[in-house]
Amino acid sequence: MPIIQRHYDEIKSEFEKDKGWLLRLHLTNKQYLIKEFLPEYPHDESIGFEAKSFDWYEFSNTSTEREDVFIIRASFLVIGSLIFYDQLKESSRKEITLDITAEILCTYYADSGSILYIREDLTILTGDLKKISSFDTIVLREFNNLTMLKPLSAGIYDKTWSFNEPTNKTHEFISSLDYFYEIENMNRQAKYFIALANTYSHYANDYFPRVEVEPFIHYRLNLTSHDRRYLDYCTSAIQSMYVYWERIALLIYQYYKPKNHKKVNDKNLSFTKLMHEIIKEQQATGIDLGWFEDFLKDYHSKLQMLRRPLVHFRIDSAHHKGSYIPMIHTRWIKNIGNKGELDQIENFSKKLIEEIIDLAKRCHDGYEKSIQLIIDLKSASASI
Questions:
Q1: Close Cβ partners of 168 (under 8 Å, ≥ 6 residues apart)
Q2: How far, in whole angstroms, is CA 78 from its chain's centroid?
């Protein structure tokens, strides 16, 4: 971790100066903090705060979704005075001791070894916020462990978007850094939902708690809250990945519009339709389309198979109808005495996260391949 003791000392100094101005700023302006730390005091009065001493007892830091951004968590006891005002004049003081845990979002600069943070932009954790923050730490650890899912970055934009020659307002926006951030966000969102699903997968997918023999041998379904969250986040990851590829399609479409306008146009654009038309029309140009052909046949078709029943309820499907939780429940009830069939249902759920991760591995490469495709299409067009 690049965060070291001197960075913690900087945080200490900022909190302690000017009689605890950072705490004063937050404690006296945010009603949820006043109610949390000062419940016995009337909330309709003007109050102030001055710190006298700090007793720091814990520092830690956590990686975030970006490798140069960290969350520093500081815990300390502070003794100070609560100041009451009456018509802008101090009316009384009361000494109090507060046990504070604060989180500060910091950007780390490797060249100088320094950190940058907005002093007013910190979070003082209340009871519920501490629980949320602890859970976020677990999910971020899972997120950062998914190293096979490479992130997009602004550096990739600088390197690959030199072809920006907007011809209209739509083209101008979709060629901009703003739209790159849209694509980058869908990539990050998919990875975050995968991290959430992976977090719950460690405690899910054990559907056989006990066997019952009356009135016949059958297996009661044990679908816990962890199973439900796992399947919910798998669903969200699938949807985010699909939207990611639709964003890629819109980008490519600005630089190449297929001749068959009935199949592909502004109103019915999709990644699958667009790429099929490009492959059909550009086969003779020498452009390398092999990656996209393989991707459409294998990975993108699998993604569509996972997503389609989630959006379009499939009456004709023997196994996957609609969303996962009702589908599993319905299939389980229909096969409640058939252990072999129930094993298949459980295995489907267990392997779902593995399939999703495998599909997500292509997101980063697909972006770079799409940029290269745009460059190749422009070059082929210019040579005609």
A1: none
A2: 35
Element of type H or E holding 96: strand 89-109
For residue 69, the cross-strand partners are 107
CA gap 354, 158 in Å, rounded: 32
Average confidence score pLDDT of the chain: 84
**Cβ pair 71, 30 in contact under 8 A:** no
What are 139-153's pLDDT values in tens digits?
988 998 888 787 777
Preceding amide of 39 cis, omega within 30: no
Number of residues written out for the chain: 384
- pTM, entire model: 0.82
CB atoms within 10 A of CB 21: 16
| 234 pLDDT above the threshold of 80 | yes
- Report the alpha-carbon distance of residue 353 to residue 247 in Å, rounded: 23
Rounded CA-CA distance 28/34 in Å is: 7
Strand 218-219, strand 122-124: pairing: unpaired
pLDDT digits (tens, 9 = 90+) for 255-282: 888 888 888 888 889 999 999 999 998 8
Helix or strand run (H / E) with residue 131: helix 127-145
Nearest C-alpha neighbor of 223 from the set 318, 310, 349: 349
| pLDDT for 244 | 95
Parallel/antiparallel/unpaired status of strands 114-116 and 211-212: unpaired
Q: Where are the beta strands (DSSP E) in 15-68?
A: 46-63
Phi, psi of 170 (to 5 degrees): -60, -50
Helices 324-334 + 339-360 axis angle, to 10? 160
To 10 degrees, what angle do helices 271-282 and 225-255 make? 40
**Collapsing DSSP states into helix, strand and coil, what is residue 47?**
strand
Contact in structure between 275 and 287 (CB atoms under 8 Å): no
Chain centre to alpha carbon of residue 346: 26
The 10s digit of each residue's pLDDT in 167-224 is: 677 777 777 778 888 898 999 999 999 999 999 999 888 876 566 655 666 777 778 8
Is residue 26 within 8 Å of 103, Cβ to Cβ? Answer: no
Helix, strand or coil, per DSSP, at residue 249: helix
Alpha-carbon distance 124 to 30, whole Å? Answer: 10
